[in-house]
């Protein structure tokens, strides 16, 4: 290359760089130069997702001088530190901790009642909302000025943390306490599907008329609870929300902490809306293994499937799982491409239909007493119809058609409460 060519390139590079600098300084460039932005704003410039809890600059001043109660569990983190420890280090006065199912530290198995205690690390009273009572009492709230709710949800009707939210909102409304919600993304928030809960089947695994995957973050669901008058006696809770930054419902989100002992992988969280229906059947969903909600099986399916596993008692996960110490044969979904769920936006009913057809003792398949699971099938499904449709040999498409017009009506109603696209 000639000296003349080098000279032309040098002049062109100088002009280009000077032009870019002029754009940054005069504001004509729509994206600020990160070099000129303060550290606390750098994530917003880069478009990094930030949970409500991580944005302490937005709510820390509001906590000053207040006695705080916190509804939290192990998912309540800022980076690698619990939100409780983080706020304590910043001088926030936390007087009580409230823990949902699995407890504040997350070491109780599903469905196991948790007693009140004192947090071993901080000495703060830890009140169980999954023991003697499911909502804070007047006495619990007497010395609290502001309640904070910060728990990761997975966007499924029968996942009990949304029930905890409802009970906390009712208690706050009854006792004139404000609730600050630190929002978190919904890993299953990209789709809405399933039958709407029949109110005759209202239970601890489903309270309100919503589908299996509701497509809302915790804060959006709180707004729906208020707006639709679903709180007890139609009370309204005074809520304040710290939104997720740079979040949309279609955004893939991998949780930094497992939301509960048996949802221990990103795969299990995405398969959970489909596989939890097996909780009301004689089929194991892998409880008692380290791969829950990614494998399915039963001892009576020997000879029909090659894949097998043996459930064992695992402390903190499943102490007495279904078919404990027995060889279970069935389906291995650990390598299932969950992008298919994202693409189709549907709960998968084919596995339920397949295993019902393969199981030799049809009258035992939906036997709740033998299944020894967390809830009977009708309560999990939210309808009496699904079980009868599977027994009758209905196709997946025929079953889906029966969810209308309720599902479409819910989707329309949901739009009123969305905080994110």
TrEMBL record:
Residues 68-266 form the Peptidoglycan beta-N-acetylmuramidase NamZ N-terminal domain. GO terms for molecular function: peptidoglycan beta-N-acetylmuramidase activity. This is Uncharacterized conserved protein YbbC, DUF1343 family. The keyword Ribosomal protein does not apply. Residues 1-21 form the signal peptide. Residues 270-420 form the Peptidoglycan beta-N-acetylmuramidase NamZ C-terminal domain. InterPro entries: NamZ, NamZ_C, NamZ_N. It holds the Pfam family NamZ_C. Keywords: Signal. PROSITE patterns: PROKAR_LIPOPROTEIN. The keyword Signal applies.
């Amino acid at each position: 290359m000639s000296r003349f060519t080098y000279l032309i390139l040098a002049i062109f590079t100088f002009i280009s760089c000077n032009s870019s600098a002029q754009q940054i300084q005069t504001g004509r460039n729509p994206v600020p130069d990160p070099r000129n932005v303060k550290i606390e704003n750098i994530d917003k410039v880069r478009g990094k997702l930030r949970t409500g809890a991580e944005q302490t600059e937005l709510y820390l001043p509001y906590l000053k001088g207040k006695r705080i109660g916190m509804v939290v569990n192990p998912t309540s983190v800022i980076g690698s530190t619990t939100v409780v420890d983080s706020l304590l280090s910043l001088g926030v006065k936390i007087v009580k901790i409230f823990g949902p199912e699995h407890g504040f530290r997350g070491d109780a198995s599903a469905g196991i009642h948790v007693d009140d205690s004192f947090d071993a690390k901080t000495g703060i009273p830890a009140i169980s909302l999954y023991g003697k009572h499911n909502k804070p009492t007047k006495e619990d709230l007497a010395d609290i000025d502001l309640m904070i709710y910060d728990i990761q949800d997975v966007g499924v009707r029968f996942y009990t943390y949304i029930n905890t939210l409802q009970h906390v909102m009712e208690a706050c409304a009854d006792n004139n306490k404000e609730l600050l919600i630190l929002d978190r993304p919904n890993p299953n928030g990209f789709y809405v599907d399933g039958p709407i809960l029949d109110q005759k089947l209202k239970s601890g695994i489903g309270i309100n008329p919503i589908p299996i995957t509701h497509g809302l973050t915790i804060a959006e669901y709180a707004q729906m609870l208020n707006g639709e008058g679903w709180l007890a006696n139609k009370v309204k809770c005074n809520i304040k929300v710290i939104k997720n930054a740079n979040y949309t419902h279609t955004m893939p989100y991998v949780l930094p902490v497992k939301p509960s002992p048996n949802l221990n992988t990103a795969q299990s969280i995405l398969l959970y809306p489909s596989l939890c229906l097996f909780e009301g059947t004689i089929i194991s969903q892998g409880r008692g293994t380290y791969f829950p909600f990614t494998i399915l099986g039963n001892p009576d399916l020997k000879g029909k499937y090659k894949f097998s596993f043996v459930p064992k008692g695992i402390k903190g996960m499943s102490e007495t799982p279904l078919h404990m110490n027995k060889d279970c044969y069935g389906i291995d979904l650990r390598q299932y491409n969950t992008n298919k769920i994202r693409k189709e936006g549907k709960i998968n009913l084919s596995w339920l239909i397949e295993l019902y057809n393969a199981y030799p003792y049809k009258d035992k398949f939906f036997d709740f007493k033998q299944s020894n699971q967390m809830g009977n099938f009708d309560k999990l499904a939210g309808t009496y119809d699904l079980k009868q449709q599977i027994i009758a040999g209905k196709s997946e498409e025929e079953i889906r058609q029966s969810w209308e017009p309720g599902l479409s009506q819910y989707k329309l109603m949901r739009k009123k409460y969305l905080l994110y696209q």
